[in-house]
Amino acid sequence: MEIQPDKYRIEELAQKWLDQELSTREAKEFELWFSQIDLNPVEVPRTPSTDEAQFEKDLFRKIKRKAAIYPKSKILWPSVAAASIVLLLGLAIFAFYQYRDLHKSSYVQGHSTIQPGRNRAMMKLASGQQIELDANRGWVSVQGNNIKYADGSIVASQLAGSDMNSNSLLITPRGGQYQMVLSDGTKVWLNAGSSLKFPIKFGKQRVVELQGEAYFQVFRDKNHPFVVKTSTQEIQVLGTHFNICSYADEKKAVTTLESGSVQVSLSEKPDEKIRIKPGEQAISARGSLEVKTANTQLAVAWKDNKFIFDHTSIEEIMKRVARWYDVDVVYQGPVPTELFGGTVSRFDSIEKVLSILELTGKVHFKIERRQIIVSQ
What we know:
The structure is a single chain. The chain is of the alpha+beta class. The protein folds into three domains: 7-102, no CATH class; 118-299, Jelly Rolls (Sandwich); 303-375, Phage tail protein beta-alpha-beta fold (3-Layer(bab) Sandwich). The chain is 25% helix and 35% strand. The protein contains eight helices and 24 strands. The chain has helices at 7-18, 24-36, 52-67, 78-102, 162-165, 296-299, 314-325, 350-358; strands at 118-119, 122-124, 130-132, 139-143, 146-149, 154-156, 167-172, 176-181, 187-190, 194-199, 206-217, 226-229, 233-237, 241-246, 253-259, 262-266, 269-276, 280-285, 288-293, 306-313, 328-331, 339-345, 364-368, 371-375. The protein has a 19-stranded mixed sheet that branches. The protein has a three-stranded mixed sheet with strand order 21-24-23, with helices on one face. The protein has a two-stranded antiparallel ribbon with strand order 20-22. Helix 2 (24-36) crosses helix 4. The longest helix has 25 residues, at 78-102. The model is unreliable at 38-50 and 62-107 (pLDDT under 50).
């Protein structure tokens, strides 16, 4: 996660570093900032020389080489440039040695065996048959009257009767995700704590129902519109890529369009449709529907196995953490009001995610079994 600290905060930390007055917490905060600034001046090898003098020499050489390619508009006076290189060298050495010990301690209280989410899902056929899907495959597809994994092996075969004529369910628990291809070729990525109701064979209209969150890559068929129904929205498309987030514990439902075109309406007002364009999202809350410019990268980050936050409240962050790591969240005292920004892999340990948030000094966590206690 890339925490974005205030510029004056960094200046304060830099001065403390030069004066050798950084506390342990401040040193970690400063190291984290330095490791993420977009200067790209140095490539530190995974196994650098154990000889500190040799390491400094190699690092200095790389910094000088990188400094030579800066745009002309950024040329500095020689003395300033030299000072900057020395400062970069010192910062890089500081970061290198601090990083070695960063993983050894954490501000997060408690230890756990909480694992990140993974491919987990259950298929429930209309007949009532329940099938636990293979975690090592991650894709299922409807092919005729069969459901198969991507490698061709059978999930369910020779479906007939109610299984063909009624809807089936793909269900992901908290801490799970899965992907499937519907009978028309539409691809669906299903996020944690979600369910998708779908027919084995579509009729004149292609209609599915979603609870939770999913990303759709709809196969284009102008004669058979594709419709997604949620508890508050109805989305109609021909062929497009879009994300829907409609969890029961969220105050709003959001449809974000990456490409193509979709029409969105409130479930209780199906005739009042609005059309959104790529880069926009339709947000429904408290019986109203509005269109806003969207950060599509943010909206679909989960599909690419990332958490991305941008001016995000701790409550929203912890909802995502709770679903993906299958934990419960409890707030002790006032809920922190600060907003956070950054990026972290969804496959990082929960301790790493929480520790990085704690480096802001604005929030603290305690892990007790599968419960996360949040405090200021």
